[in-house]
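Usage example:
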Amino acid sequence: MKNTDTAGLEKEFQDRIDRGEIIEPKDWMPERYRKQLIRMMSQHAHSEVVGMLPEGNWITRAPSLRRKAVLLAKVQDEAGHGLYIYSAAETLGADRKDLLAEFLSGRAKYSSIFNYPTLTWADMGAIGWLVDGAAIINQTALAKCSYGPYARAMIRICKEENFHHKQGYEILSTLMKGSLPQRAMAQDAVNRWWWPSLMMFGPQDANSPNSEELLRWKVKKYSNDELRQRFIDRTVPQAEHIGLSFPDPLLKWNEKRRHYDFGKINWEEFFNVINGRGPCNRERMKARKKADEDGLWVRLAAEAYAAKHPNLN
Amino acid sequence: MSSKNKPGNDLFLYLLRLGDTSLVLSHRLAEWCGHGPILEEDIAMTNISLDLIGQARILLGYASRVEGKGRSEDDLAYLREERAFYNVLLAEQPNGDFACTMVRQLFISSYQFFLFEALQKSADETIAAFAAKSLKEVTYHLRHSSEWVLRLGDGTAESREKTVQAVNELWMYTRDLFDMDSVDRNLLTAGIAPDMNLVKEKWEQKITGVLKESTIPVPPSDAWMASGSREGKHTEHLGYLLAEMQILPRTYPGASW
Ligand SMILES: [Fe+2]
Ligand SMILES: [Fe+2]
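Running the assembly step on the lines above writes:
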């Protein structure tokens, strides 16, 4: 049976959450709260790092020096986000090395969106606009979550995400003002990235196992479906503005709901990709494992050097 | 390439040499993106790559104005062929392993450091301003790469072995950094460019120091040296790099991005 002390502490903890207080690393928290946060934050950090790969794929082929510089800066930001969120997770007693090991062994997940290939330059636009756009909606919500270090990390990161979103939209709107093949390239990218972006908000509320608890702890402030709807409502007018459409015949403004209605998401695809059966899962994991293995001698050298010269650091 | 016709042409070629070096090295570093040995190093290498692309844009932008034929910075970057690129040979060498990348960086950052230091006093104000701004960036690149060469050279037996090999493989491209032709000599006379022999002396002193501290032997002075970048004669690697870099503007002529 539950220790009465723990029960008391848990009640007090929930009261604090309900009063809208922010939990800091040294505060008492239920083990399960700590675990769930470490899981979420490490998944988030892994996603930032894996996310470097699909866009890194186009830096060397960016079609102008300005675009190249912007894309480089963006991908560098994502690496920074990864680092920043790993540090935030470490405030909960997790160790980045262990988190990384869990990721490389395939036990920890990362956002399934990065398991899709970047086939044309327009994909850089679609990712910035849709993927970072979806990330902004998710992360703006997380910026109000109950765990202080995570919330603060999100506030800082969201500023950069807005720049990512803008540069993506700018890539697509430039393409849409271009030649026929350029416009086709833009539309094709949007066709491929639209549905996967909607899946970024996670399963429908009815099928989201962790949601209820996370909402109660205010780790999540809104449900997956709420955030998805917010993203769609915000994005559809932007598409219309530059002459892009989405591959969903059911997508339509609903005056009664004051929201856009949309078609059925292919959840089978979502769960397939989450569970390793997506177009680039193997490649992404292989690339990260190779980076880790190839980098081992470098890390060992740095350790050996530090041990030989203890006064230097 | 003959340059005796117009003094502007010397300046144009000189700017291409500097700009192409930054551009091509930036490209190589960007290839590491997402594949670095640690996340911090992914950030550092993209950071250096970003500085270099910024340098390339200033230099090629200025080259475009000096040329005055309406070719933009992008036209210069994307529509010139291999034989019209003038980056130093070292910049286009493949990344190899991390030791190779860091040794290449050390060699080039050190070259850029002493070159830009001298160019701060250039009679050409645009170049002088560029050099002063870029020197700050290059100071960081040089510190970063020398710290790594130190750690790798004086780290484990394996890392030392890899670093020795990287130095031996890349050494042959280091004389090309300092070769002087009529362009350099004319600009030297005009007070625009420095004497590369003086830059070379400082470079050798710096590199010898770093290699010694890293326990890495300095290659013999009679080692065979490649050259050719001043005339746009490259190694076989550049063609592939440009094919990749230039594919979109060449596939869609005249398109805006
Ligand atoms: Fe991010
Ligand atoms: Fe982003």
